[in-house]
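Memo to structure team: turn this sequence into structure tokens by end of day. - J.P.
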Amino acid sequence: MTDGTPATPARMRIDKWLWAARFYRTRSLAAQAIAAGHVKLDGHTVKAARELHMGACLEIAIGDLVWTVVVRGFNVQRRPASEAQLLYQETPESSARRAANQEARRLAPVPGSELRGRPTKRDRRQIRGFNENC
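Reply from structure team:
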């Protein structure tokens, strides 16, 4: 007799795992990232249907962040983030690299990153005044 909870599989498709571990919002986004070569399994590019096993080392590039994680578990369903974090363990080198990258972005932000949308009337006056004074 089953209690209604799905059995944890021993293997899982890599796109399903990335979705369940909450690296990507949808499975199709995970599959697109895999097809683009942003996800590597043990240093090699793979296809979305590739079976993932426990202990596999994944390198996941999301934007300018690169995660290196070791697979620790599987979930058939997408669960809350606190449970999803139990599915993998990030390597110490990866976490140090991400922290250094985050600190560098904090200290030297990209010029114009604080600008949002169209300039306001006040902003336009300042721009006009700057251009006239040059």
